[in-house]
Amino acid sequence: MSTTFIWDGDTPVLRFPLKDGTTLKDNSLCAVEFHIMDKKGTTLVARRPGIAVSPRAGGMVDLMLQGDETDWAGLGTTLIVKPIIHVPIDPTGAPHTAQLLSDGSFENLVVPPSSGYNVWFHGGSTSNCFYTRYGPENGLVDTAPPSIYGHYIQVTAGTNATNEYLAQSILGTTVVGHVYSGGVWARGENCQGAPDNTWCAAIYMGAYATLEGSYTNFDSGTFNWTFYRVSHRVTIGGADGVQFQLRTMYPALGGGSGAMKRLLVDDAYFFRGTWATYTPEPMRVVVKPRRRTTKWVNQIAAIGSFEVDSNGDGVPDGWYSTNARIMSLDSKYFYTGSKSLKIAPTGVGALYFRTAIRGAFKAGELWEVSFRLKNLAPISRGSVFTLSLFTNTFDSSLGKQTYSTSLPPGPVNWSRYSASLLLAADRAVLYFELRAIGTVGTFWIDDAQFTRVM
Ligand SMILES: [Ca+2]
Ligand SMILES: [Ca+2]
Questions:
Q1: pLDDT by residue (tens digit) across 439-453?
Q2: Ligand 2 mean position to 338 CA, how many Å?
Q3: What is the distance in A from the centroid of ligand 2 to the CA of 449?
């Protein structure tokens, strides 16, 4: 066992070998949940996903501790971590080796999925729900923690209020008495939920319109990665095969489009056989407490003056942008140092310019982001032109917090704008973001600051 750091930041991560006896397990054939307890055995978190490490056959799995969880060290520096492993068992009773889905972890899916790939949209349309392949390399989704493995699918509500699903059919004759099982990790954000059988992982047999099968509902609301299992014993055999569906009805996402209402799914399993649960011995883990962040110190002093762009892509070091082409470092105007960041949006595409700050942010603290803004002529603001401070939805507690300050059309001459947030829960990451949607014009920003003021 070792402790390491993964993904795009420095959130503490514990890495475990996944062993059955002396054999390391292949994560592609099982799902791992962790249950976390204090040293007295009191449960602190029930169910936290195990993040598969590449290569999966290496049998290593990561457990990411979030936000105030790392402060459990204060409880006595020792946590008890109990893995629960969901293992597919084939009809002979042996651990299963055959995954029926051609790409259950969505690693090679093209966008939009096509029937040629054997994963398709109901009705062949993408207008009802938007399915997008994402992964940790996509900076835009860095408000989400790691996927279960590699890429995941994000489902957001579209424009038509009809049912949609991701599905894969396995053709061939099904036999009465055979059991098929499936499973999938899912994670919801502001999901309204829906009636049984419309917001679920499901198995259907025979002619799918007549629907012999079973399903397990997804949760509603906002919920962290959860593993959903489903099994079904065939009672009507036939030549129509069997289908595994992830049903995501438009109303279940609360209607309307928007990243704030979405379902993520990853690592789907489908096989002939049943699920078994394997529980290795709990492990004792020593956790170090997080470092507190000092008041009144600019946490982004090293990158807030926009002086360096090492790779010459237009985006200053330490920042992420959805549109590098409209920005560049400029030495003609500056408020601090010798350069500022010139941004000239054309109204095409949304600009999200962002940096993430990681640390020990406590409930009750007041945090502020600020920068200086200059322009020579009024700009057209478009629908959104804001400076925002926000938290990670799933960081410690589930609720996301955001505060945005509208920016003016100008012209202004290095006016200071700020956005501040009183934290309602302990957090491990805060985000500074300039957002411009439909904005047209030219402006400069400098002296970005990120400060704990209370
Ligand atoms: Ca995946
Ligand atoms: Ca500067």
A1: 999 999 999 999 999
A2: 5
A3: 12
Q: In terms of Cα–Cα distance, which of 46, 48, 21 is closest to 32?
A: 48
Distance from Cα 182 to the centre of ligand 2, integer Å: 54
Residue 303 lies in a domain: no
Cross-strand bridge partners of residue 87: 276
Please give the C-alpha separations between residue 231 and each of 61, 212, 241, 276, 409, in angstroms, as whole numbers.
25, 12, 15, 11, 58
Task: Please give the DSSP secondary-structure letter assigned to residue 108.
Answer: S
Is there a contact between 353 and 437 (Cβ–Cβ < 8 Å)?
Answer: no
Write phi, then psi, for 154 (nearest 5 degrees): -105, 130
Alpha carbon 267 to its chain's center: 13
pLDDT band at 301 (very low <50, low <70, confident <90, very high): very high
Number of Cβ within 10 Å of residue 303's Cβ equals: 17
Q: Nearest ligand to the C-alpha of residue 445?
A: 2
Query: Residue 24 belongs to what domain range?
Result: 2-87+279-286
Q: How many Å lie between the centroid of ligand 2 and the Cα of residue 351?
A: 20
Q: Give distance in angstroms: CA of 247 to centre of ligand 1.
A: 18
pLDDT in tens, 55-112: 887 888 888 776 666 666 555 567 888 989 998 998 988 877 778 887 788 776 554 4
pLDDT at 6: 36
Whether residue 265 is contained in a domain is answered as yes
Bridge partners (DSSP) listed for residue 420: 368
Q: For residue 382, report the distance from its CA to the centre of ligand 2, in Å.
A: 26
- Compute, in angstroms, the gap from residue 135 CA to the centroid of ligand 1: 8
Same domain, residue pair 123 and 78: no
* Tokens 């209020």, residue located: 161
Which ligand is in closest contact with the Cα of 109?
1
CA of 302 to the centre of ligand 2 (A): 11
Total structural domains within the chain:
3
Q: What is the CATH number of the domain that holds 58?
A: 2.60.40
Q: Is residue 386 part of a domain?
A: yes
Q: How far is the CA of 315 from the centre of ligand 2 (A)?
A: 13
Ligand 1 center to 49 CA (angstroms): 13
Distance CA 130, CA 112 (A): 9
Which ligand has an atom closest to residue 267 CA?
1
